[in-house]
Design brief:
Distance between the termini of chain B: 83 Å
Number of strands of chain B: 0
Strand order of the largest sheet of chain A: 5-4-3-6-7
Number of strands of chain A: 7
Strand content of chain A: 15-25%
Distance between the termini of chain A: 61 Å
Number of helices of chain B: 8
Radius of gyration of chain B: 37 Å
Radius of gyration of chain A: 20 Å
Largest sheet of chain A: 5 strands, mixed
Largest sheet of chain B: none
Oligomer: heterodimer
Helix content of chain B: 55-70%
Shape of chain B: elongated
Number of helices of chain A: 5
Structural class of chain A: alpha/beta
Structural class of chain B: mainly alpha
Order of helices and strands of chain A: HEEEHEHEHEEH
Helix content of chain A: 40-55%
Largest interface: A-B, 17 and 14 residues
Order of helices and strands of chain B: HHHHHHHH
């Protein structure tokens, strides 16, 4: 009997590892930036290229930084959610138009609506590298002290927003 | 017409020269150093390609970043630290040895040790089995007599003591006609075997 049980147990262990391992999304990498100060940046505003926005301007606010682009088709999926969120006035959403021509970004916003308090343009993607961006869309939650508290890679779903992001926003705003 | 196409198609491979993704810096020595470093780094969006060989937009940006940092005079380790602080250990093809990667680095050796342990245990067990089966001088003699008996009278049924023949060597069945015959007879007459 034991000679059947042992191979079966080994098989079950291997199967369990495979079940978990194959279910993981290889694109979701843990970000080393969580709970670290957000990298400094100074970028021109999309609608006013002669004016700039830097991290210093954001001190004292809890805010969302959404990295998007007009060439990013997945961004269209999460966009209605941000439109809705901006109407509810819970947390300001700042956009970063990543590796995009400003005119393309503006055209995209005319078509899909603009949920952003302000948009900066990272045309060359340099600030993106500082923020460890590798898959657009990405969304960062940054607290009053300028510390990154949460990073979401890929499309934000309603459940992500309601169960993770918004409760964290409330908590951070209360601090 | 068809025959003309064949030599033309043979020429096709000449147009398909692939190589490392190129976006060269002016300085070839720096470019070489950048490529050497980029080969140790993983492209983040293409799963298992190095930063040096990837054509993705992000890889191009990262190569540009590495190149610029080299121009600023940063050494390789500083650049690696910078990228790891942004993208995590995933950018390294050689993951560093630390608590979360112990299983990765030491797991295979642990499995090897377990395997050796099981092997030694099994071999010991087998050795004990063989030792148990050793016969006393008297038994050996009796067994030999029985074997001779059956060899002389192959058709005569062999009723008693045939079972001992089996214990002569438990790891390999008795060889030769005589052994076979006596065993078969034992099975017929004494079903306990």
């Amino acid at each position: 009997m034991a000679r059947f049980i042992l191979p079966f147990v080994i098989f079950m262990i291997v199967a369990a590892f495979l079940f978990v391992g194959l279910g993981l999304n290889p694109r979701e990498l843990p970000s080393p930036l969580i709970d670290k100060p957000a990298p400094e940046f100074t970028l021109p505003q999309l609608y006013a290229p002669d004016k700039q926005l830097s991290l210093q301007d954001m001190k004292g606010k809890v805010w969302l930084l959404n990295v998007w682009a007009s060439w990013c088709t997945a961004c269209e999926q999460e966009h209605p959610l941000f439109m809705d969120l901006s109407r509810r006035n819970i947390v300001p959403i700042y956009g970063m138009d990543y590796k995009d021509k400003p005119e393309d970004g503006k055209a995209w916003l005319r078509r899909h609506g603009n949920p952003y308090t302000l948009i900066v343009s990272d045309a060359e993607g340099r600030v993106g590298i500082d923020y460890g961006v590798y898959g657009v869309p990405e969304t960062f939650l940054i607290d009053k002290q300028g510390i990154i508290r949460y990073k979401h890679i890929g499309v934000v779903k309603k459940s992500d927003l309601d169960e993770k992001i918004l409760p964290m926003v409330k908590e951070l705003q209360a601090k | 017409m068809k025959y003309l196409l064949i030599p033309l198609m043979c020429l096709l491979p000449f147009f398909a020269n692939a190589g490392e993704a190129t976006d060269m810096a002016a300085d070839p020595i720096l470019e070489k150093r950048m490529i050497v470093l980029a080969e140790k780094l993983r492209c983040l969006v293409c799963q298992n390609e190095s930063l040096a060989s990837s054509h993705s937009g992000l890889a191009e940006d990262l190569r540009r970043e590495v190149r610029e940092q080299m121009q600023k005079g940063m050494n390789d380790q500083e650049i690696i630290d910078y990228l790891v602080s942004r993208y995590g250990d995933f950018v390294l093809f050689d993951p560093p040895v630390k608590k979360t990667t112990w299983v990765l680095w030491y797991g295979p050796f642990a499995l090897l040790l377990i395997g050796l342990g099981v092997l030694v245990y099994q071999l010991r067990k087998r050795k004990n089995l063989i030792a148990e089966a050793e016969l006393s001088a008297e038994e050996t003699q009796r067994a030999a007599e029985l074997l001779n008996e059956t060899a002389e009278l192959p058709n005569q049924p062999n009723g008693h003591g045939g079972g001992h023949v089996r214990s002569l060597s438990p790891t390999s069945p008795p060889e030769g006609e005589s052994g076979d015959v006596s065993l078969r007879d034992v099975r017929v007459k004494e079903p306990r075997a």
